[in-house]
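Pipeline run #58 for the internal structure catalog. This entry was flagged by the ingest filter as a single-chain record with no existing model, so it goes straight to prediction. Upstream metadata was stripped on purpose; only the residue string is passed forward. Reviewer on rotation: M.T. Logging verbosity set to normal.
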Amino acid sequence: MTLQRSPKQLAKLIEYVLSRRPDEFGLVTDDDGYIKIKELLKAIKEEEGFRYVRRSHLDEIMLTVRSHSLEISQDVIRSKLRDQLPRQAYAGNPPKLLYTCVRRKAYPHVSEKGIRPAGFSRVILSSNPKLAERMGSRFDRSAVLLTVQVQISVDKGVVFFQAGEEIFLADFIPAGGFTGPPLPKEKPAMKKTDEFEDRQPQRQAGSFYIDLKDKLDKTVPKSKRTSNGTDRKNDGKRMKKQKRKRERPPWRR
């Protein structure tokens, strides 16, 4: 069983993330230095020894650690010490390749229409494919990794911004400005059959059906059958009963 770190140790890690290197954890602050708490917790849980962290542990820091520099406002958090926080700036010389992930279900649409921001103000990209996969797994365990061709995207009007050593941002990435794995093949549509179509019952192996007519034909000898296939002996008895009913009773004679 993994031992939980003290609130002070957890506070030091969070302060490092929020005041110095959010990009190292695949995070981007807004203009005021805030990050959504749920995004911060996802990143912190990926670190060895901090997988237990919940929102309640942040509240514990606020109450028990006197020297912390954290500020919480509803569902966002930031550090008071932001002098070393990387600022978003125009990327004059970005890498030739950048990486980002999209939801697997959205991949066919993205491949046709391009990459748009999902939950953030801009598309978040990384120069490190492993970091991009790490960020993608936070919203989809089977996220699709895409490789952005920077020069092709720039030629299509994309402007890149940098937010730390490994994080880059863009308003959008057009179709044709990135590559990815082959699209999943579409399943052929099932042909609908007429509901009123006559369907013959199919005989399964090991099953049999009883034909009463065949059974009757086999049990009654041909010599005792009538023209319609019935038993002559039984027909004769029926005729005699009918004749007896027609005979005049003795007391009326």
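catalog note: The chain is about 30% helix and 15% strand.
catalog note: Residues 48 and 161 are 31 Å apart (CA to CA).
status: ready for reviewer M.T.
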